[in-house]
Design brief:
The complex is a heterodimer of chains A (about 280) and B (about 300). By secondary structure, chain A is an all-alpha fold. Chain A has helices at about 15-35, 40-70, 80-110, 115-120, 125-150, 165-185, 190-205, 220-225, 230-240, 250-275. The chains are: A mainly alpha (about 280), B alpha/beta (about 300).
């Protein structure tokens, strides 16, 4: 053991301006480094999930549906083609939720790593943005893999279908930002997970026009779809992957809804992180 | 004396109705080792988080390296190394990765941090654990890693909150050795502790805190001189007899304290006092003469022991 080379209190090494401009990236890098520790599990799920869904629901159930509706199809296409864009958006949403909620709880409660980050020049907002960026990274490769599987199953019909990739990532980002802000407020995560799983994620998945057009639902239940990022993303995804008809106004509505969710989520997440760290 | 690196006046922090830090004043100068001694809940950690430019104060003023932490938090934190009470290491990453990512949080160049990681692993005696995940380390190793991590940016001030709590005696001594070496190199150390031996070993100057307020300030030696006698005679008569005997012994010494398990008699000469006690036909079950410590100072100031 020696202290040779350990110099203290003399050098002014740290370039604060550099941290101020890149801080969120440093946080994202370390989060991605963590993610890489179980990358094979993440990738395994990212591939197995769409394969299982598309086979069981898309082909299995879809076969029955296609037979009963005949050549008119669902929304003019086979059930598999109809279903796939919704599953793509759902995959992005689930991916970003996992990568925003769990790291936030870990950072504030379980291992308190946000407090160590905040004892460097990093600010609460940078930590929030960094965690969010890493979640986008996860959503990106999840969606890319999912899209590849969809292509393999013949669920991609339109030439500009690739635009469904950024759209799905965007929808994941919007939901993730909001979830991250909520997770930043959490003191007791047990109740949160029960509520989130049973009363948020499940209804969103079931009532956002994922498995059938939203208009098939009784009118008094359709509002669940209207406030669901999944429905907005699914509508855009269907438009892009097989030419589902939506008016230009509705395209704007979908983007504005999702964009507002993103801006609100990111704003509050940054504020909540900063306040909680300064307590 | 030069300008203080840290200067606080009327520093107060409240959580709702609870006042964690109650209007404290102190100055810390470059190169000194400054301690906050007090029991759990005295407000030491809260004060440290304010000095660490993370927690916001409720009122009062504080200047760290000439700056207000509420206005210049990142600029101040750039020059601090912080060792929190709980090792908030990244359990999923390896020992070297923890040091590396922390260096990057300061915006330090990759090449510099890589070199620094090697130095710090040697400093913390963790070279063989370089690629081990943090969750597999012992408590002492985690603590050394947390201290090494705080040094990655070559800070001007090292803040240590209860650095040896939860460690076994051997691990404590290794840590004290590391901190002592840093002090020798001129690093300004701020240490909170509720161990009086740690405060005596490491601190040039300290404040004694209780319930958010400062009870006394000075060097360990001066505090002992001002608030205690040179020696202490500890006597045990049995828990049912201590109080009754203490009342009879009170006139024989400068001051007497009754604790549940023993009686403490404050005197300039413990052996002479013990002889007098035997001569007066008192027969304690055990007796011990020791020099006064900061524990006695705290007992004098608050009527309570540091560890309750």
């Amino acid at each position: 053991m020696s202290l040779i080379g350990i110099r203290q209190g003399s050098l002014q090494l740290v370039d604060v301006a550099r941290v101020q401009s890149r801080g969120a990236l440093y946080v994202a890098q370390s989060r991605i480094r963590q993610m890489m520790k179980w990358i094979w599990i993440i990738l395994g799920f990212a591939i197995a999930n769409p394969v299982m869904y598309l086979i069981s629901v898309g082909i299995g159930l879809g076969g029955l549906i296609d037979k009963s509706v005949g050549p008119a199809g669902i929304d003019g296409v086979k059930y598999l083609t109809f279903l796939a864009p919704a599953l793509l958006a759902q995959a992005a949403i689930q991916g970003t939720m996992d990568e925003t909620v769990f790291p936030t709880l870990e950072g504030f409660k379980w291992s308190k790593t946000f407090y160590s980050m905040n004892s460097t020049p990093l600010t609460g907002r940078q930590i929030s943005n960094g965690i969010f960026l890493a979640a986008i990274f996860r959503a990106t490769y999840t969606v890319l893999l999912y899209f590849g599987v969809m292509w393999g199953f013949g669920a991609i019909k339109a030439p500009h279908a690739w635009l469904a990739i950024p759209t799905a990532i965007f929808s994941g980002a919007c939901f993730g930002a909001l979830m991250q802000a909520m997770a930043g407020k959490l003191e007791d995560e047990n109740i949160f997970f029960t509520v989130l799983g049973r009363f948020v994620m499940m209804p969103l998945f079931m009532f956002s026009g994922t498995f059938f057009p939203l208009t098939s639902m009784p009118f008094y239940l359709q509002w669940i779809g209207w406030i669901s990022p999944l429905w907005h993303a699914t509508e855009l995804g269907r438009h892009l992957t097989y030419g589902h008809v939506i008016s230009p106004t509705m395209v704007w509505v979908h983007f504005i809804f999702l964009g507002s969710m993103l801006a609100t989520g990111l704003f509050f997440s940054g504020r909540i992180f900063a306040k909680r760290l300064a307590k | 004396m030069s300008n203080p690196l840290i200067s606080a006046r009327g520093l107060t922090k409240k959580f709702g109705d609870f006042t964690a830090v109650n209007g404290i004043d102190f100055d810390v100068f470059k190169g000194e080792s400054f301690g906050f001694l007090g029991p759990n809940g005295a407000g030491k950690s809260t004060a440290m988080r304010i000095i660490g430019a993370t927690a916001q104060r409720t009122s009062g003023t504080i200047s760290i390296l000439g700056k207000d932490p509420e206005l210049h938090g990142p600029q101040i934190r750039a020059h601090l190394g912080v060792v929190p009470q709980q090792d908030n290491l990244d359990m999923h990453l390896t020992v070297s990765e923890n040091l590396y990512i922390y260096g990057r949080y300061f915006g330090l160049p990759r090449k510099f941090v890589k070199g620094k990681v090697d130095e710090l692993l040697a400093f913390a005696q963790l070279e063989e654990k370089r690629d081990t995940k943090v969750e597999a380390l012992s408590g002492g190793m985690k603590r050394r890693l947390t201290i090494a991590r705080a040094l990655v940016s070559e800070p001007e001030i090292l803040i240590l909150d209860e650095p040896t709590t939860g460690l076994d005696p051997q691990a404590r001594h290794i840590l004290w050795d590391r901190l002592f070496r840093l002090k020798e190199q001129g690093v300004t150390l701020l240490i909170t502790t509720h161990f009086m031996d740690e405060a005596e070993q490491l601190c040039d100057r300290l404040i004694v805190m209780d319930k958010g307020s400062i009870m006394a300030e000075g060097s360990p030696a001066s505090l002992i001189k001002d608030y205690s006698t040179k020696e202490v005679l500890e006597l045990r008569f049995g828990s049912d007899r201590n109080q009754a005997v203490a009342d009879s012994l009170r006139a024989m010494c400068d001051r007497i304290e009754e604790l549940p398990d023993r009686v403490l008699m404050y005197t300039e000469n413990g052996e002479a006092l013990l002889e007098k006690i035997y001569a007066a036909d008192f027969h304690p079950k055990t007796s011990l003469v020791r020099r006064s410590s900061l524990e006695d100072v705290f007992l004098r100031l608050t009527g309570r022991t540091l560890i309750e």
